[in-house]
Structure to design on (364 residues):
């Protein structure tokens, strides 16, 4: 077993890459090596800011000092790029969704298995203190037997903050595939695999307009529903309601899990920190302090690197990402077909982290 730090390369120097890089340079188990992008100037700027090499995709994939490659490309090319990474003999960490189809996700995971490599996937926010504390407390019986949950994520849409938002209204995105992974991953974490789903979709406007940046005023087509109201049924018999919307003037993030003994209100699953509140069936509400890491994007890459060294499965695994994708696609299919959709996959909840798990500790 290697005891060297994991060399990391990144493909995609867009907006989200800075979030990863800001965090990962604080994680001693990872060593940032190189970044590539079709926009060479953008890659060079990021490389200079973070002390990395700027390379072409081909050169990055042939670099011997890179063990894990982070795929931060747009969803439409996640599968293609991740397959290239595996073909180069390197492990993959991909932004969500893992691919745009179940078939591609299954092919990707099989390719990784055939090559003895890992294909892991965001989101990794569920590894943060808030959701980890919720999972541990639910497993310890704080709310009794989990029976239902609710997740709501609403906003007017990303065009108010993103300078190039059209891809978020294209195939492979929309509020369900863009924001849904955080909530569905947390549902599975708390309540286990999903068995079937139903949904009602809507599209408020067929076109949208960029509102910030150099392209402000440019219109683009909305190709997917801009709101889904879904009902999920779990293998355990529990249920959940999920509303994902780019159609609401109010920005709202809500996540609750109810059980036979009470309800646990959990912070926004898109983030890692914030205390919880227990509303018992009998008695007064009380706070539940969150315990664990509050680092954001990139902690999953640390868990991946440590899991590679230990021979254990990473928590943000490709099999979990496939089940999440299966749920999200089923929500879209259920909306189009106006019927319940049975899931073709299942994935048990990942094992919780210990309270003292620390991505800033040097362990390898």
């Amino acid at each position: 077993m290697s005891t060297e730090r994991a060399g990391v390369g990144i493909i995609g120097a867009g907006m989200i890459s800075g979030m990863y890089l800001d965090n990962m340079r604080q994680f001693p188990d990872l060593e940032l090596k190189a970044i590539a992008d079709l926009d060479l100037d953008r890659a060079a700027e990021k490389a200079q800011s973070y002390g990395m090499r700027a390379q072409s995709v081909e050169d990055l994939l042939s670099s011997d000092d890179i063990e894990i490659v982070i795929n931060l490309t747009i969803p439409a090319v996640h599968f293609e790029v991740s397959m290239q990474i595996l073909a180069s003999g390197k492990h993959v960490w991909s932004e969500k969704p893992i691919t745009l189809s179940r078939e591609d996700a299954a092919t990707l995971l099989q390719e990784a298995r055939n090559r003895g490599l890992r294909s892991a996937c965001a989101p990794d926010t569920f590894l943060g203190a808030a959701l980890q504390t919720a999972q541990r407390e639910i497993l310890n019986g704080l709310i009794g037997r989990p029976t239902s949950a609710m997740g709501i994520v609403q906003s007017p849409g990303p065009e108010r903050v993103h300078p190039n938002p059209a891809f978020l209204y294209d195939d492979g995105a929309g509020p369900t595939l863009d924001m849904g992974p955080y909530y569905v991953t947390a549902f599975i974490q708390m309540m286990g695999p999903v068995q079937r789903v139903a949904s009602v979709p809507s599209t408020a406007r067929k076109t949208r307009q960029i509102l910030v940046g150099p392209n402000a005023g440019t219109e683009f087509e909305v190709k997917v529903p801009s709101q889904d109201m879904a009902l999920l049924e779990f293998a355990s018999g529990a249920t959940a309601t999920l509303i994902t919307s780019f159609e609401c003037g109010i920005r709202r993030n809500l996540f609750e899990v109810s059980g036979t003994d009470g309800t646990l209100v959990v912070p926004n699953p898109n983030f890692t920190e914030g205390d919880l509140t227990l509303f018992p069936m009998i008695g007064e509400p009380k706070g539940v302090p969150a315990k664990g890491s509050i680092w954001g994007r990139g902690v999953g890459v640390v868990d991946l690197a440590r899991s590679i060294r230990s021979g254990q499965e990473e928590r943000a695994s490709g099999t979990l990402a496939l089940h999440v994708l299966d749920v999200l696609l089923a929500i879209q299919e259920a909306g189009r077909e106006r019927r319940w959709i049975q899931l073709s996959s299942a994935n048990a909840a990942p094992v919780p982290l210990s309270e003292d798990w620390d991505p800033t500790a040097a362990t390898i």
About this structure: The first helix runs from residue 17 to 24.
